[in-house]
Amino acid sequence: MSNQVVLLLAIFIPVAGAFLLPLAGAINIRLRNTLSLIFVVSSFILNLLLIPGAIAGKILTITQALPFGFNFSFTADALAVFMACVSSLISSIIVFYSFGYISHYEYQSEYYLMVTLFLGSMIGLVYSANLILLYIFWEITALCSWRLIGFFREKQYVLKADKAFLMTFFGAISMLVGFILIAFKAGSFELSVIKEAFRNNPIPGLIVALILAGILSKSATLPFQTWLPDAGVAPSPVTALLHAAVLVKIGVYVYARLFVATIDIPYIWHTIVPFIAGVSALVAAGCAIVEIDLKRIIAYSTISQIGFIFLGLSLNVQIGLVGGLLYILMHGLSKAGLFLCAGIVEQNTKTKDITKMGGLIQTMPFTAVAFLFCAFSVMGIPPFGGFFSKYMVFNSAVNNGNLWITSIFLVGAFMTIIYLFRVFNMVFMGSPNSPLVKEGSKTMVFSVMSLAILSFFAGILIYYPFTFANVAMAGFIR
Amino acid sequence: MINNAYLPLSLTLIIALPLVASALVLLIPTRWKSIKGLVSFTVALVTLLISILIYRNNFSFSFPWIGFGLDISLRLYPFSAFIVTAAQGFAVLVSLFSIKFMEGREHEGQFYSYLLITLGLTSGAVLADNLLLLLFFWEGLLLVLFGMIAVGGKEAFRSATKAFIINGVTDLCMMSGILLAGYLAHTFIISKMNLPATGLGALAFVLIMIGAISKSGSMPFHTWIPDAALAAPLPFMAFVPGAIEKLIGIYFLTRITLDIFKLSAGSTLSVLLMWIGGLTLLFAVMMALIQKNYKRLLSYHAISQVGYMILGVGTAVPIGIIGGLFHMINNAIYKSGLFLTAGSVEKQTGTTSLEELGGLGRKMPITFICFLITALSISGVWPFNGFFSKEYIYDAAIGKGLIFYVMAALGSFFTAASFLKLGHAAFLGKLQERNQKIKESSVSMLIPMIVLAAFCIFFGLYNSVAVKIFEPIVQASYTGKETHFIFNISPMLAAITGIILALAVLNHLLGVKLGKDGLHASDHIRNAPIISWIYTKAEKRWFDPYEIAMKLLKVFSAILLWIDRRVNWISDVFMVKVSYSIGSAIRRVHLANYPVYLIWGILGFAAVTLFLIH
């Protein structure tokens, strides 16, 4: 199997396979679930197969010219392969977890269809080498997220789903305008052409602002952050997917792809973006300290952590780029873990209000430990993976010499410790405020434990993801 | 001396062996939990033996890890060797003590596992010759800190959280300081760093210093210690706040003042450190004086004594630094010993509340003697070890300003007074009804106490031996003007110390007369005008920086939430209103009237044409 075929299969197995799932569901539920997992896992394995080539520095491209410059072209460089591996790994665990979680609800075929398509379009977006192709996949993810957030179909929930869709959609339209303006200047939507056209020649600030609006709305960063906490009405594996593997990570990935790997942005944006990210990180952390809805707290935590990722990616410092990319991995693992733990808690206690919980460690010790491990990783405590990404991002901020931005993020990091402990203590420790419930199903506990353990080993074996990320981010500093 | 080829292996073993063993301890099935303590003891002993074997070597090695400055580089030299050996010694003694003490408690296995991890990470932090590697081990201690306190009981997690948050926040400050220092020095290798403590360097120094003094338990980062004293299992107190945190906190503080930055005597930062030390030692001992619980009283002394060390190191003159380091090891010995006597009392009587104790001296004579020796040491009575280190610190302090000496001397007065009260209330006086049947503790608990008490005497009688340990360390790095490294105890200061101690005894006798018994011997100070008001507020945690910070944070967060809700209002209310009003405005021009539409059409056509022509 040539690498081209591997790349295409990695994208199209989940994209095309997703549409088989409702059919399979009509035959047999087990078959459908297994197929869904097989599609996602095979995408992960295929992405893994691309790693050796990517680390060796070979850039794999597939181009099929189509009219009007809407070329069908994919590129697999180290950056794309890294992101694709992270997304598909986490998605695989989430799909496995869904077997336990979603079995209580109706419309399961739709669920598996959407989740698999979601991941597939994410992989497609990651490998896209053409702005129009990228935009198409971007909007497919928006559609999937809209359907999945409103999965429970209550009026209020559907409204929240609409909000998420509209906010990201308006952002995307603004981004599309930016893309078209770029194409006017460069003469093509192809990233490789654009890269040549803008070599040593930053693009105008207006285009940066237009595209940034799209990125920030997708990555739920101030001032477009509010749809993400509202999206907590979705089933927990979906929120995990939104926060950890796809959707929110799309924004930061496209930032890295466009503004780090492809085009120069005017120098001032290396200050503006960290500043926006810093304010966003701080505001969201403050909300997480006062909120009482379990999933909203974790959602605000994501907004806050996304700020750290942007900080790393936007400072134009090598260690920051590597740190930001590692942050995507570490945050993905631990945040998925937190949401899946929250899913177990929320499904068994039938509430999301943390003031009504307490003492759950007595009956759900595994979930509690997994939650704590993932929380440690988010806080950045060694030897968990989060430590390395956090210190690298801070290192870049210090090297950049902007003390104000560093201090904003430092306060954000303090608050991270505080809100995560508050949540942990109120949910799992102390005396119970309502009758204790039993531990989650084996499938679900296995999923959260594996995410917690992965967070741990991602830190212990940091050498491997680090080397990969270092290759992925080589040569982008200007 | 052993063959050099084995040195890298030995250093790795010192760090890795306890970490690996900790996992094994957790894996040992509950059926055999009695051997968990034994495993911990053996592993600590093995690492101690390795350290003793390689003690006299000067050696460093480096091994690339992930780049960007983070490499595995370890350095064994007299200072790090001493600290590691001492830490391992405490681990051996505390493990031995815990075997009997922790027997039958919940989470016994977890405790030993955390103890071993603490040992491994501490050794790593001390041996690290790379600031980022040091940070890795240092911050890792947070995990076990939380765990060790939390296994103390159902509600212990609250103190554990407080400890974690305080140390977590200060560790983040230290991280920023380390990154800044590395940026300024263009390297993270400690032995290659040499930064001026001015400008950004001063900022880096202060940030790192926050981490170091917070780890050692100084004010204003101390308030978790008294809380943990009651919540956490006692061996934790003896091991972590009693010994380990002092060792690495003061070790690192000394490294930054002597090696990484060259702190000069009389500089602003040196004065800042001295003030932190002076105020810590005084305020904490004032709080210790009025405590009515054995463990809580000791915990305030654990804070207070650190003040002496910071004061000594902060003077930035050789006698002060050596005094501070000498006091560090002395304090670790007697404070650990004192906590163990508290453990012995707790195990035998089931309480550490002084109201329920008294007259134990006859029932538990060996514990009492150990208490006596360690209490005399901490009070600075000649010829015990505490006397000598305190005298050095007095000597350095008086050279830097009378005020520092006065604070230190007042601190000594209250230290002596509070130990007179503690000893009187716990071991003398009337034996309570509930304690009639108690016996002396078992041998495995007594041995660690006896060993520690013996060290108090040894380091007192042979104080010059102890000072010889630190002299070359300081001499090698010291760049200040003062060059003479031969110290004598100043007879005048020693005489004043004697008077202060005598006054403390008189004060105690007065207190006993006024308060009727040992327990209430400090009530006349507690109830003195003004002071009593401060005490009342302090007991209500008015001055707890943690509580204050948490309250401020709540307000700050509420403001941030308000911002978030305003932004949300734009999308959820404002935008909806705008689109509705645009919609209704547009609806108003749709009159279902053909001529009007025609005019709209013509106007539109004209506009497009104009644009195209233009």
CA-based shape of chain B: globular
Order of helices and strands of chain B: HHEEHHHHHHHHHHHHHHHHHHHHH
What's the total helix number of chain B?
23
> Structural class given helices, strands, pairing of chain B?
mainly alpha
Tell me the β content of chain A: under 5%
Question: Gap between N and C termini of chain B, in Å?
Answer: 93 Å
Side by side, the strands of the main sheet of chain A go 1-2
**Structural class by helix and strand composition of chain A:** mainly alpha
H-E order of chain A: HHHHEEHHHHHHHHHHHHHHHHH
Strand content of chain B: under 5%
Mean pLDDT reading of chain A: 88
Please count the helical segments of chain A.
Answer: 21
Kindly state the number of beta strands of chain A: 2
Query: So what's the overall shape of chain A?
Result: globular
Oligomer: heterodimer
Helix residue percentage of chain B? over 70%
- Gyration radius from CA atoms of chain B, angstroms: 30 Å
Integer count of domains of chain B: 3
Q: How are the strands ordered across the major sheet of chain B?
A: 1-2
- Taking pLDDT < 50 over at least 5 consecutive residues as the criterion, the unreliable ranges of chain A are none
